Automatic annotation (TrEMBL):
It catalyses: holo-[ACP] + malonyl-CoA = malonyl-[ACP] + CoA. Gene3D superfamilies: Malonyl-CoA ACP transacylase, ACP-binding, Malonyl-Coenzyme A Acyl Carrier Protein, domain 2. It comes from the Bacteria. The keyword Acyltransferase applies. Its EC number is 2.3.1.39. This is [acyl-carrier-protein] S-malonyltransferase. One of its GO terms (cellular component) is cytosol.
Length: 299
């Protein structure tokens, strides 16, 4: 299973190995010049296009050593590179759609909104705290489920901070304001989903060449309609990552390969399934990855 992280792991210099022609392609298709520095990664458009491009390069690296995924699992933004890996959408169309997505997200909530994470409380407990704080003036919603005891919240920064403070009072192990400048995976993003529906109507999509694990319900999808729905609506729904991993286990997956940037989801897999074999592209070179994958295939 190939895992594609979303926003949060971006860092200055992460595109240093990406061929210049790929960077120029982004500029040609979108007009955006990726500058790959700390200042750029305060901007949602630079973050999303930068991470997508890095993952498209990773896919090229893996296909060059004749690797194909049995399943793909993208987290939020990561679903678009996952779609490329599964031959659902072309590189160029993924770049154009992510540009529209990131632009509309930034336009919708330029300041004052974001996401936070709470570790050590159940989703039910977090939802009860959110219900205490959520108002029309300071909206906040229960969002992504990354593991049984790791829940994300989305909304106004003011509302998020109040929920994080409440979570500490209720013995949460950890609370953090995430490096995501928009309230993703909440009802606040419906206007962006409406735009994506129109844009994806112009794009040719195909059935996947492998199992696709959908964000919006965690289920295994093998037809293009379910993937298209995910690409349009995943910003409105929570990402049910914990369910996605349970389904991966159920269908016989026992190996995960996390594309760049970061290794957050490898850690989540290891904490959930001690018998999983894991690889992170952030910490291994492509020759070592090829050696391991071929060794594991031989049994």
């Amino acid at each position: 299973m190939w895992i594609f992280p979303g926003q949060g792991g971006q860092k200055s210099g992460m595109l240093k190995d990406v061929p210049q022609e790929m960077i120029e392609r982004v500029k040609t298709l979108t007009g955006v010049e990726l500058t790959d520095d700390d200042k750029a990664y305060q901007d949602s458009i630079q973050i999303q296009l930068g991470i997508l491009l890095l993952q498209l390069f990773n896919i090229r690296q893996l296909k060059k050593i004749h690797q194909q995924p049995d399943a793909v699992a993208g987290h939020s933004l990561g679903i678009f590179a996952a779609g490329v890996a599964a031959d659902v959408i072309s590189e160029d169309d993924a770049i154009k759609i992510v540009y529209v997505r990131s632009t509309k997200m930034q336009e919708s909530y330029p300041t004052g909104y974001g996401m936070g994470a709470i570790v050590g409380l159940t989703r039910k407990e977090v939802s009860a705290l959110v219900d205490q704080i959520n108002t029309e003036d300071e909206p906040v919603f229960t969002s992504n489920q990354n593991s049984e005891l790791q829940t994300v919240i989305s909304g106004s920064i003011a509302g998020i901070k109040k929920v994080l403070d409440l979570a500490k009072d209720h013995s949460a192990q950890k609370t953090v304001l995430l490096k995501v400048p928009v309230p993703s995976h909440s009802p606040l993003m419906q206007s962006v989903a409406d735009v994506l529906e129109k844009e994806l109507a112009k794009v040719t999509l195909h059935d996947p060449n492998c199992t696709y694990l959908a964000n919006y319900n965690g289920h295994a999808v093998r037809k293009v309609d379910g993937i298209k729905y995910d690409m349009i609506n995943n910003l409105v729904h929570p990402v049910y990552w914990d369910t996605m991993m349970d389904v991966a286990k159920e269908i016989g997956i026992d190996t995960s390969l996390e594309l760049q940037p970061g290794h957050t989801f490898t850690k989540l897999v290891k904490s959930k399934f001690s018998d999983f074999r894991t690889i992170t592209m952030d910490s291994m070179n492509i020759d070592d990855i090829e050696f391991l994958l071929e060794k594991w295939k031989r049994g």
